[in-house]
Amino acid sequence: MSRVAGKGGDSVTATAPQEVMAPVVGRLAIIGVGLIGGSLALALRRGAAVGEVIGCGRRRESLERAVALGVIDRWYEEPAEAVAEADMVAVCVPLRAMRSIFTQIVPALAPGAVVTDVGSAKGSVIADAAAVCGEVPTWLVPGHPIAGTEHSGVEAAFAELYERRRVVLTPLPETAAAATAQVTAMWQAAGARVVEMSPEHHDEVLAATSHLPHALAYALVDSLARWDDHREIFELAAGGFRDFTRIASSDPEMWRDISAANRTQLVAALRRYQDDLARLTAALEAGEDEQVLAVYRHARDERARFLKILEGRA
Amino acid sequence: MSRVAGKGGDSVTATAPQEVMAPVVGRLAIIGVGLIGGSLALALRRGAAVGEVIGCGRRRESLERAVALGVIDRWYEEPAEAVAEADMVAVCVPLRAMRSIFTQIVPALAPGAVVTDVGSAKGSVIADAAAVCGEVPTWLVPGHPIAGTEHSGVEAAFAELYERRRVVLTPLPETAAAATAQVTAMWQAAGARVVEMSPEHHDEVLAATSHLPHALAYALVDSLARWDDHREIFELAAGGFRDFTRIASSDPEMWRDISAANRTQLVAALRRYQDDLARLTAALEAGEDEQVLAVYRHARDERARFLKILEGRA
Prior knowledge:
The structure is a homodimer.
Chain A: E1 3-4, H1 11-14, E2 25-31, H2 35-46, E3 50-56, H3 60-68, E4 74-76, H4 79-83, E5 88-91, H5 98-105, E6 114-117, H6 123-133, E7 140-141, E8 143-145, E9 166-169, H7 177-189, E10 193-196, H8 199-225, H9 230-235, H10 239-244, H11 252-261, H12 263-285, H13 289-312
Parallel strand pairs in A: 2-3, 2-5, 3-4, 5-6, 6-7, 9-10
Antiparallel strand pairs in A: 1-10, 8-9
């Protein structure tokens, strides 16, 4: 089960407040200043919801660009230095880098500092943190903003990315309630609607909505490209195929990592889908066209409901 | 194998000619004046490539609208009347209506008249015509323009729909060469690039590029909507899911008909895809992440090639 946090949960509270008395976050360290981390900084700055933003990344020119773009105030190359004076740390790095970042920042965190992340799988991030700390840390609030674009890098960051978007937080029994409240307030100040659920539930739902479609799209393009006449197949494909396979243009290394990080749930989602697909195939082969129609109709109707949810975030 | 017909096959000849000495088609009858048939009429009119366009359809107000929009010159409600004086007949009706239309027009066709269609499966259209005529008719040039939008109806028609798009023709040994030449010239005058192949090959390729993705998208939305927490699943889905499932908003009855009309090839494509998907699932489950990465990378690279083909029609 999930619940939407916020003052009444209506759409007005989901937009960035125009007047903020005191910054929601004093000093924010962003580890990994790209589309996701950079947009968080810009959204908080726009609402005067952050005092100072410290960046950290591997590429010096990218960090200098982030300063020039007004995304961050200053930067360090070493994560330990970046977090030393921070009240809040947002870890915005690929899943494969999480454990290394935790190893570097844990000894350097200021007392009372809160850490959150933006990883697409939550169980693996929690396992990484627990492995580094020896137990699930009280100061970690695992998070996942359901937002993004096909672009990456700090140049692609924009303040509106999270407006009316869902951010899932998956605090554990060990997590300090005050830490969860601070991270919730930060994302609300960025314009997002915060939802809480267990890490297991997050990983199950995201396997269905995101990881499964990516695997299906990758598998389709890979499969068709191995047909004998694949050049001709691509020549005779049109806009529907282009849209259906858009996510197959995503970063393969990132998606290998996400697939591995959410292996159990993604395998389960793949098997469930294959069972349903086998049933549809059998119905079609047997000439049970009204059964095929029932699937198509149900899908068309449910997608209309999904679009209403997506557009209205009703 | 396929070949591109046309004067040299370069991109210049694919655009609508600005000066035409005589109309390519004298009197064109369009059975079913919607997006596809209406856009064909508009494209030919723009290039002065047609003398007169006669419409035919089931809804009188739609036909009157087509006259008002300058798509057709006049109309009949009876297909037999519409084709009686036509040099060229374009049958632009759903696959399920093909046999009925052939039954009505065959006795009424003028001597020397050529008939083509726009059905998404070609074997079934040829079977329908042969069933009505007792043999494969020499005057039928089965066709399929690879173009469309998410809209339908004559209001959605526009003259540029076929520009640089592929139109597949699947003439048979029985088909009169002059008939194929006339249909080729018509589509070229509408801005399209004409490709010839066998009906079997068309149906195999379109099963892969179009019918399979539709079935996969319908199956996914249907499948997820039957999960217990499907409301939450849709709430946490984002733009990638929206694009991936866009084709699941297509007309279910039309796609039941297409699926049934191309049953053998679609079932084969579904089975082939399921074999590949099962292999990917097994690799992921076994922790063979480099094998997973190989599939994702190959797909990403091949989709980049596809986009070049789609954009450049190279």
